[in-house]
Structures are given as structure tokens and as C-alpha cells.
Design a protein that fits this description.
Layout: E1 20-25, H1 32-37, E2 60-67, H2 72-86, H3 90-95, E3 97-102, H4 110-115, H5 118-130, E4 135-139, H6 144-153, H7 170-179, E5 187-191, H8 194-207, E6 212-217, E7 226-230, H9 231-234, H10 238-244, H11 253-263, E8 265-269, E9 275-277, E10 279-285, E11 291-302, E12 305-311, H12 318-335, E13 339-349, E14 357-364, H13 371-381, E15 384-386, E16 391-394, E17 397-409, H14 418-427, E18 439-444, H15 447-451, E19 453-460, H16 463-479
Parallel strand pairs: 1-2, 1-4, 2-3
Antiparallel strand pairs: 5-8, 6-7, 6-8, 9-13, 10-11, 10-13, 11-12, 12-17, 13-14, 15-16, 16-17, 17-19, 18-19
Length: 483
């Protein structure tokens, strides 16, 4: 294999007109600690089937490698919308859409299971042989396991080079933000044990007046692996410090200690102000190293847990966070970061007359929680991102959206057939309308049977329109409980 990273900047574009094969392997290579407590993560692979819209080019083939468990109703739903978005007949689209399913085992990611399954790897290779060249891989995130899979398949991938893996850690993000001259909370990184974290916190309380502090595992996401401590807890001796750690239900001190040693971590002061908002900003770093602004979002959080996202971020700080994020993305590009990168930020102020202060929190150099919602919305509406305005522009006007993986999350939803939910959505006229470019798009469906959960992206032309569709669709789904 000549190159491990994709070098051709054209082959990864939606509008690429030459022959190619996109091999989609969207297994969630999340931190091992989070995998133990995050149920159903294999289903989240289906969110990235927005690559179906790449089939608009008649010379493109898509090979999707997925864990077992995708709900059959989802194929019909996604294919129907992809046909409308691309103008293709279903038979033409399906002819160039290939699927390989890999048995899901325990908490392991799709790529780990692939490496243990020579038959699945051979099946993928055999499918690739039938498809046009060149071919490349789109992973959800690249770690050492993904590099091994790419080498076994003999294909380049579009994501981080190994030299840039560190940016995905909490410690690495602090380094990137510091080099980019972006504010970071006072703290210490590159800690390798809980006892080191304890000593670092005792140093930190001497240089910070904050009332609260955070301990973070390096390689986790979605709010997992973060503990919030009161100032007085940090000054306790080590034994009492460990006893006082606010561990969530089901998590033991022994387990947290184990993963702190495996991953390392950071300690930081908890940032507080009268006004605190949590936006994120996304970029694409092309194969030739150019940095393209993709989107800004306002995150929907519950404590430190990520629930969803709203696009675009409010206009009064949209350009500021994009400008700040651009500095960090350019630094990452120099280290070898490619593909999609996102930065979670905090913006704070104590008076409305003050300018916002922007803080770097963490870097997600992967197809994160806002990636699929953005590209489903963009491709379904044929919109283009105007970086100067920070909005998606389509033929029917500006596009905005709101999305959540927990659009409805209720135990009774397990009893509702996925087909019934989709049928009700379509009959209500709330399902995404391609002519009007607005409505509800279900991007996560398979967890409905096991976990009673669905994810949706609500697309529209104004905040008011999105809120109306959002409320109407939630009421519609809850009515199914009574039917």
C-alpha cells in the first residue's frame, strides 16, 4: 500500500465525477470506559449512511460495513430519501450499494471485531474487487485498530494520520489550544494515575480560586469519564479523596482507577460565569491540508452529557468561534490531521456589555455527534455552507436544524414496530419534504426495539418552524403509545 492516508483531494468530494468506491466502516471506536456504560452504540453506525447521497455520481459505488442489527425498516426509509435527494431510481441506487455485516461481540468496536474475523475481511476484499477503483475508507474515527484494518484491506483512509492521534485526547487538546493561543482552564494534563491527579489537584487549588474542579479521562466522550469535585475535596489526603470521589451509579473506584492508568487524564478548574454557553465548531481538513469551515452548533447538554445539537450557533458569536476554531484546525493539519474535526468550546461573560470569552474544552477529530446531522441536512436540501455568514444556503432559503439521538427515549417505544412509526410520520406529512426542504428526518431507528429510543434531525428555514415540527413530531410518536 503506497499511502495510508488519502492523497487525492477530489476523491472525497460529493461531486466527484470519476469512478470510485467509498468503503464506509463507521464503527464507533469510543473509549473503552464509555463502551461499558453506553448501551447500543453499534446502532449508531447507521447515522453515517448519508454517504448514500454520494451515489448521485453514476460511477460511484458505496460499500457499507456495519455491525449486525440494522432494522429492515431503516433501509427502506434511507433509500427512499436518498433516491429523492439524488434523483435516482431505487434500482439504480441499489445496484451500486453493497453491504457487509459483521457480528457484534461484547463491547468491542466494529473494527476490533473485523480484525478477529478473517471471513468478514475476505468478504469485504471480495466485494471491493467487484467495485471500481480507486477505493478509500471512511472510518468514524481512526485509532491503531483502524490503521490495521486499512492495511489488511490495502486501502487508504480519510482521517487522522497516526502522528495526530494525540489531538483526540483531553491532554492533547490542551496542547493544541495552547499552541493556538486559545483560552484553556487552569489545570494539568498528561497525568497517568489517580494519585498523580490527586497531587495535581492539590497544586491547582493553590493557583486557582475556582470552587469546583474536574477530573477527566483522556479518551472518553459524551460526558463520560468526568468527575466534578468541590474545592475542599481536593485538599483531602489520598484515601479520603478517593472515598469522596462522586462516582456515578454502577461505576467503582477500582474501575475508574484502572482506566485512568490505561488512558491517562487531566485535572482542570471548572469554568463558571453568569452566562455560560457550550457551542461547537466543525472543520474539514482536506487531503492536501486545506482547512474548510463546515458548521457551528449550539450543543444541547444535560450537565456534562451531550443530548443533541442546534444549527447554526447564534449570530452574536458565530463568526468568533469559527475564527478561533480555525486557528486550532490549522495547527492540527500540520500534525497530520485530515478529514472532519470538531472542537467543543465554552463561551462566558458576566455582563451583557462584555465581549464573550472563548475557551477550548476538547477536540473530537472524528465524525462526531453533529457530523451526521449536518450532512444529512446539507445533502437532503442540496445546500452549500456560506462560511462568511455561517449558514447553509439552499434554493428555498437558509437551512437550520435541530437534532438529538434521544428525540424520544421511552421504554414503551420498544413495543412500537419501526414500520408503524415511519408510516405514521409519513401520513402526518411531518416527514422531510424534499420540495419544501423542511420536516423531520429519522437518522437513528434501530435502537427502537431494544432500547426504546430514536434519533431525529428536524430541518427547516427558521427557529419557529423547527420548534413547530419538533413538538408536533414528538406528540405524534407519543400518540402511538395509545394506538
Amino acid at each position: 500500500m503506497r499511502h495510508i492516508i488519502v492523497k487525492d483531494p477530489g476523491i472525497v468530494r460529493l461531486d466527484y465525477s470519476q469512478p470510485r468506491t467509498v468503503v464506509l466502516i463507521p464503527g464507533l471506536s469510543i473509549g473503552a470506559f464509555l463502551q461499558m456504560f453506553f448501551h447500543g452504540f453499534k446502532y449508531y453506525e447507521e447515522r453515517y449512511l448519508y454517504f448514500l447521497t454520494f451515489l448521485k455520481n453514476p460511477q460511484t459505488h458505496l460499500l457499507a460495513v456495519l455491525s449486525e442489527g440494522v432494522n429492515p425498516a431503516l433501509w427502506d426509509y434511507f433509500l427512499g430519501h436518498a433516491c429523492r435527494a439524488t434523483g435516482l431510481k431505487r434500482a439504480d441506487l441499489e445496484k451500486r450499494f453493497h453491504k457487509v455485516f459483521v457480528p457484534a461481540k461484547g463491547h468491542d468496536s466494529l473494527t476490533v471485531n473485523l480484525l478477529r474475523d478473517p471471513k468478514a475481511l475476505k468478504k469485504i476484499k471480495d466485494e471491493i474487487k467487484k467495485c471500481p477503483k480507486p477505493a478509500y475508507i471512511e472510518f468514524w474515527r481512526v485509532k491503531k485498530e483502524e490503521v490495521k484494518v486499512a492495511k489488511k484491506l490495502g486501502l487508504p483512509y480519510y482521517s487522522l494520520a497516526p502522528s495526530a492521534f494525540f489531538v483526540n485526547t483531553k491532554s492533547g487538546a490542551r496542547k493544541i489550544f495552547k499552541q493556538s493561543k486559545i483560552n484553556i482552564a487552569k489545570g494539568f494534563g498528561d497525568l497517568r494515575s489517580l494519585s498523580q491527579a490527586h497531587l495535581a489537584l492539590q497544586k491547582l487549588i493553590k493557583i486557582s480560586k475556582a470552587p469546583y474542579f474536574l477530573i477527566k479521562l483522556n479518551d472518553e466522550g459524551g460526558g463520560a469519564g468526568i468527575l466534578k469535585l468541590e474545592r475542599k475535596q481536593c485538599s483531602l489526603d489520598y484515601k479520603r479523596f478517593c472515598e469522596a470521589l462522586p462516582l456515578p451509579p454502577g461505576q467503582s473506584l477500582k474501575l475508574f482507577e484502572k482506566y485512568f492508568v490505561l488512558e491517562g487524564g487531566v485535572v482542570e478548574e471548572f469554568i463558571e460565569a453568569k452566562e455560560v454557553l457550550s457551542p461547537s465548531v466543525q472543520f474539514e481538513i482536506t487531503p492536501d491540508g486545506k482547512v474548510l469551515p463546515i458548521a457551528t452548533h449550539e450543543q444541547i447538554l444535560e450537565g456534562t452529557d451531550y443530548l443533541g445539537t442546534h444549527f447554526p450557533a447564534p449570530a452574536n458569536y458565530r463568526s468568533a468561534i469559527q475564527k478561533v476554531g480555525l486557528r486550532a484546525a490549522k495547527i492540527m493539519a500540520k500534525y497530520g490531521a485530515r478529514g472532519f474535526v470538531a472542537m467543543d468550546l465554552l463561551i462566558t461573560r458576566n455582563k451583557k456589555s462584555e465581549p464573550w470569552k472563548i475557551w477550548g474544552i476538547e477536540i473530537n477529530a472524528r465524525k462526531g455527534g453533529a457530523n451526521h446531522t449536518h450532512f444529512w441536512a446539507k445533502y437532503l436540501t442540496h445546500a452549500r455552507y456560506n462560511a462568511k455568514r455561517g449558514v447553509l444556503e439552499s434554493g428555498t432559503g437558509d437551512i437550520c436544524y435541530k437534532a438529538s439521538e434521544q428525540f424520544v427515549n421511552e421504554p414503551w417505544l420498544r413495543k412500537i414496530p419501526a414500520v408503524k412509526l415511519i408510516k405514521a410520520l409519513k401520513e402526518s406529512k411531518l416527514d422531510f419534504d424534499h420540495a419544501k426542504q423542511r420536516g423531520v428526518f429519522i437518522h437513528l431507528l434501530s435502537p427502537i426495539k431494544t432500547y426504546g429510543k430514536i434519533g431525529a434531525t428536524v430541518i427547516g428555514h427558521s427557529e419557529r418552524e423547527i420548534d413547530r415540527y419538533w413538538d408536533s413530531a414528538q406528540k405524534l410518536v407519543r400518540k402511538l403509545k395509545k394506538s
